[in-house]
Specification:
CATH superfamily of the largest domain: Periplasmic binding protein-like II
Bound molecules: adenosine-5'-triphosphate, 1-O-pyrophosphono-5-O-phosphono-alpha-D-ribofuranose, magnesium ion
Strand content: 25-35%
Largest sheet: 6 strands, mixed
Helix content: 25-40%
Structural class: alpha/beta
Strand order of the largest sheet: 2-3-1-4-11-5
Number of strands: 15
CATH architecture of the largest domain: 3-Layer(aba) Sandwich
CATH topology of the largest domain: D-Maltodextrin-Binding Protein, domain 2
Number of domains: 3
CATH class of the largest domain: Alpha Beta
């Protein structure tokens, strides 16, 4: 039977998100501690647990058919791989930062300076596009320490909350690349393998759609039913159920998480009561 091999990060910022996604897809991974390979028991998928830096290369070469990596790593490694899905977790940005007490009036201030980074390609392309000539000093980790030990004038590294920059007396001056986890694939997979990728993507889409929506239940006075229904753009139209109190009905529908908070005041004003918002596990449109 054809099986797909998927490379995921062994341990680090992508591991939990990758494993959670696979589990939410209903795929069981019997993982032995320390094992670098595992096979799903209920889906034609084999897992390789690797360093994230190696994943784009392994996917290009077909050692793995699929991989989950940050967009930052996928673009930096510049391998011949297809992006098959944006996964929406491990969101961060690649930013240039300088010592907090240094003046900064714009990119031209970086001319002639040295910048330490683990992302020489993304940074190099960005500087070139913006006509800045700086010396890129490649280091593989703990980049934020560089200005404090006289290794470079500035850094270019991943930022999420900004707390690592703050702890190292640095300030973010340019955000140059937005990243999130991507699913990448070897170009030209066989039809059998593509069919398995499609099954996996079907499940992932159902989870992502569910995550972006909420199931909402509320009681509404019958006299304001039209107003309330107009506030609730359901998948098709809301379900209306009778209640013991005949002046009220119960409305059930699905609403985008983002919409919910913007509609809540208007719903209450129209007399909606007993509003329940329930997470959805899977949603197939
Ligand atoms: N602070 C963060 N918040 C969210 N996502 C992040 C953060 N830092 C990194 N990432 C994303 O997670 C990926 C992996 O980050 P991590 O720090 O685990 O890498 P690593 O130390 O290179 O791991 P490895 O040992 O596998 O090489 C990054 O390439 C990026 O896409
Ligand atoms: O803005 P923040 O929320 O502070 O996150 C940014 C930090 O997170 C990542 O490192 P990580 O903590 O994964 O450690 P690593 O350097 O060992 O990869 C990244 O390289 C930054 O240093
Ligand atoms: Mg790495």
């Amino acid at each position: 039977m054809t099986k797909l091999k998927i490379a995921i990060q062994k341990s680090g910022r992508l591991s939990d998100g990758s494993l959670n996604l696979i589990r939410q897809c209903g795929i069981k991974i019997p993982r032995m501690k320390g094992a670098l390979k595992a096979e799903a028991s209920n889906f034609p998928l084999e897992f390789l647990f690797l360093r994230d830096d190696d994943i784009p290369g392994y996917v290009q070469d077909g050692v793995a058919d699929l991989g989950i990596v940050g967009a930052n790593e996928a673009v930096e490694k510049d391998k011949n791989v297809d992006t098959v899905h944006h996964l929406g977790f491990s969101k961060c940005r690649l930013s240039i930062a300088i010592p907090k007490d240094k003046k900064y009036d714009g990119l031209k201030d970086l001319d002639g300076k040295s910048i330490a980074t683990s992302y020489p390609k993304i940074l190099g392309d960005y500087l070139k596009e913006n006509g800045v000539t700086a010396d890129i000093h490649e280091i593989s980790g703990s980049v934020e320490i560089a200005p404090n030990i006289g290794l470079a004038d500035a850094i270019c590294d991943l930022v999420s909350t900004g707390s690592t920059l703050m702890q190292n007396n640095l300030k973010e001056v340019e955000s140059i690349f937005d990243s999130e986890a991507l699913m990448i694939a070897t170009p030209g997979l066989s039809e059998e393998k593509k069919a398995i990728v499609d099954q996996l993507l079907f499940r992932i889409n159902a989870i992502q759609t569910a995550d972006n929506n909420k199931y909402i239940l509320l009681n509404a006075p019958k006299e304001n039913l039209d107003t309330i229904i107009n506030l609730l753009p359901g998948m098709r139209s809301p379900s209306i159920l009778p209640l013991a109190n005949e002046e009220y009905v119960s409305i059930h529908t699905v609403i985008a998480e983002d919409d919910f908070w913007s509609k809540i005041e208007a719903l209450k004003e129209a007399g909606a009561e007993g509003i329940l918002v329930v997470p959805i596990e899977k949603m197939i449109l």
